[in-house]
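Journal club prep — side note

Before the paper discussion, L.F. wants everyone to see what a predicted structure for a comparable chain looks like in token form. Sequence:
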Amino acid sequence: MSNQFLHIGLYGPEARKGQPPWSTIAGIVQEGARAPGAARHVAYPTVPTLLYGLSPIEVGRIALERAEQARDAIGRRLRRDGAVLVAGVLSYPVKRDLVEDRDAPDARDLYTAWRAEAVAWCHGQFGDTLLSIVEHHDEEYLHLHAYAVPILGPGRRLVLEAIHPGRAAVKRAQAGGEDKKGQQAAYLGAMKRLQDEFHASVSVRYGHARLGPRRRRLDRTEHLLRREARRREVELERAYAEETVQVRSEIEAEVLRRFGAALTESRRRSAALVEARDSDRHRIDALNAECARLRAELASRDADSGSGYGR
């Protein structure tokens, strides 16, 4: 069973301490838009498909403007690494070459249905703050990128908790007097519930597991059943690959055989045409020679007849 993949990240104008340099608003939207040099992890980047709203680059511009407008709790400008952009990645856990296999049209239909439900889930999660959804189809797994920018509330404060459950949980924990450890636990619990909600709303309908086998405690029977199912799946994939190679080899051999036969027949016909042409030439030459001989003989007789008449 394939495992769902959902990731929700927060990004600011600059990367937070300990984060990679590209972990910024500009870096994220440029990677999503497949801007030149922004997707070095992809061998052959292609233009993403825009499924909803604006281009990622335009979303980045709006997010940077929102960062300039926003203020913190005491009216100061936001920190340069303050979160402004909410970016989600929703990946379809079936390899792209299987989804795009023309011999398995149902696989493409399933992906199309999953994509529609994933887009609808993003609309429900982010509401009017959702500005863009794009589809990437140049990596091993097809996936979506969703971008949302929170609105400004009273005092020009970003209402981030309205669209990010982790931030909402932290705010509630702070209001309840929780310490940093309690706030962190609240954050992790909220993000776990978000994963559960996405699984219940979308993933379970397509047979995608909530967690991978290493992250679940399974009883021995279920574990053995899953291991056996995985072994059978690997065997079937291997058999399919071997059968594909065999069929392809047979097709190539048949094509070569037919091509060879056609080439031999073509050469035979060409040789016959050349032989017929040479034979026709010999016959024409013989006829021309005979014609010349007859003309000479006729001319000779005419000459003899004329000479006798004049005596």
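L.F.'s comment for the group: The longest strand covers residues 85-95. Keep this in mind when we get to the figures.
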